[in-house]
Amino acid sequence: VHLGVIIQDSDEGVKLLGTLDNSSAEQAGLLKNDIIVALDNEPVETKFDLTYLISLKKPGDKGTAEVLRDGERLVFDVTYQARDLVE
User: Fold this and answer.
1) Tens of pLDDT, residues 58-83
2) Fewest CB within 10 A of the end CB: N or C in the chain?
3) Are 65 and 42 in contact (CB under 8 A)?
4) For residue 87, what pLDDT is reported?
């Protein structure tokens, strides 16, 4: 599965540089410049943390993403989708 985000590490968590069209992240309401600080109540401090936690999911799994947006903590419901593999 994938969340469908372009990310970079930040001092506060993992910053979203963008979301892919029709991705799990976009459908959940995540936006560019949001900072992911937790996934399913598990802390996210680095890109590795986020990637690892997403790797534990299966298509159709539901969870939450906690983000900082303009200094405010927000929680979004996420439904994970299968990654479309292009050959």
Assistant:
1) 999 999 999 999 999 999 999 998 87
2) C
3) no
4) 45
CB 68 within 8 A of CB 13: yes
Residue 9 CA: distances (Å) to CA of 49, 69, 79, 87: 10, 15, 23, 29
Tens-place pLDDT, residues 11-30: 999 999 999 999 999 999 99
User: Which residue type, as a one-letter code, is found at position 54?
Assistant: I
